Amino acid sequence: MILTGYENTSDALVVAAAQVVGDRLRELYPQRVRTSHPGHPVHLHADSFDVIVDIGGVPHRRRHPDEDHVLVQCARPTPEGGDSFALDAYAFVDELSTSDPVLHTFLTSTDVDLYGAWADLRGLPATPRIGRHVEYTRTGRRIVRRTDGAVPIHRDPDSDHIRTQLARLTETVHEVEPSLPRFRLDAGDILVLDNFRCWHGRDRHTGERTVRILTARSSDAA
Question: Which positions fall inside the TauD/TfdA-like domain (predicted)?
Answer without folding.
Answer: 27-211
